[in-house]
Specification:
The chain has 186 residues and is α+β, with helices and mostly antiparallel strands. It has two domains: 111 residues, formyl-coa transferase, domain 3 (2-Layer Sandwich); 35 residues, no CATH class. It has ten helices and five strands. It is 39% helix and 14% strand. A hairpin with a 2-residue loop joins strand 1 and strand 2. The strands form two sheets. Strands 1-2-3 form a three-stranded antiparallel beta sheet, with helices on one face. The chain is elongated, with a radius of gyration of 24 Å.
Amino acid sequence: MLAAILELTFEFWPYCGLVASRLGAKPIQPLCFMECRDGWIFICCVEEHQWQRFVEIMGNPEWAQMEIFANRIARGANFDALRIFLDDWCREQSVEELYQAAQRRRIPFAPVSTMGDLLASPHLKARGFFVTVEEPVAGAVTMPGAPYRMSATPWTLRSPAPCLGQHTAEVLAEVGLDAAGLAGVR
C-alpha cells in the first residue's frame, strides 16, 4: 500500500534526472485527476506512447501538436495550458467510456471510485476481494479481504477485529500484570 502513495517518486530520476519532491508541479504530465461529465478519472500518460494513444482517443486535436506539448517534459512545464484543453475535453466524456477506451489502448487510466462503486465492482466481486465477517456487536460486516492471493499460503479470515478492551487482560498478563494489578489500572 505504501508503494502506491509514492506515485512517481522512483521514476523521476531515471525518466527526468530529477530528485522527487512533494513541492511544486510534477515534471511529467498528464498525471492528474480530471473531471468527466459523470465523475472523476485519474489520467496517467507518463510514457510517450501513452500520450500518443490518448491523443488518438481525443480525435487528434490540433492543439496536441503544439510545440509546448511536444514531449512529457514540455507537457509538464506547460501543464497550466494543457490542463485547459484536457479539462474541456474530459468534461464531455463519460468516466466508464473513457476508462474502457484507455484500457483498450493500454493507457493506465483509473476511475475514481466511491465505496459504493467498489462494493458493486464486477472486477472486485469476481476476485472475491470483499468478505463478510460476523462481528459480535455489529453483526455481519462486509470489508476488504486479502489484497493478493498466494496458492502455497492461502489467506483466511480467522476472526473478526476485537472489540474495545476485548483482549486487554490477556495482553497485560503477558507483561506480568495480574488480576489485582489490572484492577488498579482500571
